[in-house]
Every structure is written in C-alpha cells, then in structure tokens.
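Give me the 3D structure for Coenzyme A biosynthesis bifunctional protein CoaBC.
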Amino acid sequence: MNETRASDPVADAPTRVVLGVSGGIAAYKAAELLRRFTESGHDVTIVPTAAALEFVGAPTWAALSGKPVHTRVFEDVHEVPHVRLGREADLVVVAPATADFLARATHGRADDLLTSTLLTARCPVVLAPAMHTEMWEHPATVANVATLRERGVVVLEPASGRLTGADTGKGRLPDPVEIFEACVDVLARPGVADLAGRHVVVSAGGTREHLDPVRFLGNASSGKQGYALARAAAARGARVTLVAANTSLPDPAGVDVVPVVSTEQLRDAVLTAAKDADAVVMAAAPADFRPTSHSGVKIKKRADGTVDPVALEQNPDILATLAHDRPRAGQVVVGFAAETGDETGSVLELGRAKLARKGCDLLVVNDVAGGAVFGADENEAVILGADGAETAVPRAAKRVLAHAIWDQVLLRTTHAR
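Predicted structure for Coenzyme A biosynthesis bifunctional protein CoaBC (417 residues):
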C-alpha cells in the first residue's frame, strides 16, 4: 500500500496584497473585499484607477486600508511605486476588472499605476471581471481572458444576476466574500495554476425526494466540501461546473453553478456537464431511495392518526454510471463515502469495497460516526486510489482536503494524457 499524508498548504501564508480597483459600477463592492483582507491580518495597498475614483473616492480607500491612496505613477517618485508595489506583493487582485482593464492587461499596457504594477508583479494575480454580458461575451474579451489564463493569471468567471439599470445576465461581480475565499485558495498555492485548460465537474449538497409539497426524503449534507472543491479548482485555473443540490451557500467566485433538487436532476446535470470534463468529483450526497409516487397535495393522516405506508424505489447510481460509462477517454472520476464501520468491516475496509464496486479512480472516505463532518467547516478523510494509493488528510479546513483531492486527480489526469 502506498500511503502518504496531505498537509495544510497555508503555512506561512503571504500577507502583502495589492488590491486594484478599476472603473466599474461594482467598484463600491471592493470596499467589502478590502475589509475582508484587512480583518484577516493582510497588509493591503489600494491602487484604484482614475475612473474608479469617480465611483468611490480616495478618502474611503484610505480610511479602510489605513494607508495613503496613490493612483499616479508620478506620486512619491523617489519610491518608484510602479515597480516597488508589484515586486513586493504576495498577491495582486483586481476587483472589479473591467473590459478595458482586461484589454490593457492583456496587451501589457503601462499607462497608469495599476497596469504598471501588474507588469512588475511576480506573484499570483487574480482578476475578478465585472461588465455587461455583451462585453463579457465579445470575441475581443473572450480572447483577452484566454490569453491571460494561458499566462497563469487567475481570471474568475463573473456571476449572473442584476447588472446596471434593468439589465440582468452574466457579468456581475462575484460576491466579495467569495472573491476573498478564492484569493485565500490562491495564496494557499502561490504560483500554482496546474488545472488551467481543464474542465472539472463537482457535485455538492444533498438531494431531496418529495413525498408531497411539504415533505421529502433527504440527508444532512451542507454542500460545504463540494463548494470548497469548486473554489480550489477555480483558484488552480480550471473551468468549473458546480452542480448544487439544495444548498444555502453563496455561489463560489469563478464557478458556473447548476442548481438541482432531486437525484434524477442531479444525474442529468452531472452527465450533461461531464461530456467534456477532464474530471468529475461526486461530493454530493444523493438520496438512495425515492417514493414511487408523488402526491400533489399534502398527505393527511386518517382519523385514527395513521397514514398509508410509503412505497420506495431505488434511485440511479450516478457514481457507478459515470465510472463505467465515461463520456471522455482518460476522465478521472472521484466518489465520496460517508461510513461509520460495522460488524462487516472497518471504515477503510468498507471504503475499499465501495471503491471496487463503483469502479471509480478515487474514493474519499469520511468517518461520520456521531454526525461528524456534516455542516462543519473542517474535515478529515482518507483518499483511496484504485491503484492502491492511500492519502490521509488530517482534520483541517475543508479547502485543505479539497486541494489534496485535486492533487490526486491531477496525478491521474497527467498520466492519462
């Protein structure tokens, strides 16, 4: 057996952050992002463009960061800020990144302090675009984003929702909390964009099988581990599709989210997204059974307080279907097993048996005795490989397990190619 242990990659996390703000209506949201960084102990330098100051003034940025705000190359020339800021930064993040800023960054322009800083930066760079849908989908922007990603820049996918005026669509700045979480993942693996150019699918949450309009069969899955997997993959440069079943979590920045309710809907959405995916990680907890019929009205008790028995049928096995009928050659399939152990075997023994039965490449085994893991912010697990590998991940933030899983996936996608 090949046994290794995964460690937390966040030790000695960098703390010097340059937060760039370009001139879009979403500039005001960067104030919340700045607050997240400063309250987490990061040393943040704000570099707004001249257009950004038309939306949020310099006093706001100075008050929130505790530092003077510079926007021009010719301010404090003796400190050579257009070179120093980029050289000293551990992370450069621009939120919002407008279409104009993306174009200037792509072509190496250095016509203001922010683009000059970007050219001298040798640290991870995260760009959070925000613009109208037509601008995001324009061939020029599409090409610019592709070029930046090829260079190792993490360009998050914008969110869908209300834009300026009455317009809605893709192009909304992701939630500042989620941008911050994406940056945390990037800081955890500085300079690592090893999933760039790959499409990965992650499922999360717990499915519901409705008995009637108010009752359903379900489980306690919160979706937090699946969301951590999606964030980590996006931070490592992947194009991510997250199929989310009944979660109350905000959409991760840079991720396409497909909401579902039932196990059948989960299966259909995952199989559709998996057609061109390099890897599929089934972190969701599908209900094993569903009622054979669904009542359109609330089921009532009889006068004596009894009800008719509920007849159940088995749901489709999504993980086994994916593993045995892969839509793409070399696709890596990962499953999860929440086990407690019993008289038939230990948690790992039952996990090994499930790994062989399902036919997937990796199985992440959680010991959930006593309700552990569900809804928690931390996790511990053992990642079992069909090749006999065994990677123990000690209890830590769920993003630590997420990165450990992607490390194992990457080994197998590299071998497949």
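Residues 199-290+309-416 form a domain with the Rossmann fold fold (CATH 3.40.50.10300). Let me know if you want a second pass.
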